[in-house]
Specification:
Helix content: under 10%
Distance between the termini: 40 Å
Shape: globular
Order of helices and strands: EEEEEEEEEEE
Mean pLDDT: 96
Length: 129
Amino acid sequence: EVQLVESGGGLVQAGGSLRLSCAASGFTFAEYAIGWVRQAPGEVREAVSCIGTSDGITYYADSVKDRFTLSSSSDNGKNTVHLQMDSLNPEDTANYYCARDRLRLRGYPPVSARDFGSWGQGTQVTVSS
C-alpha cells in the first residue's frame, strides 16, 4: 500500500521559510516521480515541484522558481522528499500534498496535478502578510 506522510507545515510571516517533508513507503521509490501539489481555498490543485525518474530532472512551477527547492533521499529503506520553501509570500498559503505519479517510470516529472495518482493527507501552510 502506497503511503505518503507529510510534515512541516505551519504559520510563517511573509519572507520566512518552511521545510516540508514527506515519508514515502509501499512502492519502489526510484520507479516513480514524486513531488508536491498545493491547493488554496477555492482554487484548483497546482503542481508545485516534482522530481522525475530520469537523471533527477526536477520541475518547478513558475510561481515558486528560485524560492523553493525539492530534494529526495533514499537511505536504509527510508524514502523521503523535502520541499524547502524560502521567501514565502501570502500567495503561497495552501494545503500542500505530497503526491506520487500515476505512471511508473514516466521519466520526466509530471507538471499537472492530474498526473498524480497517490496523495498524502496534506499539510497546511499559512503565510501572513
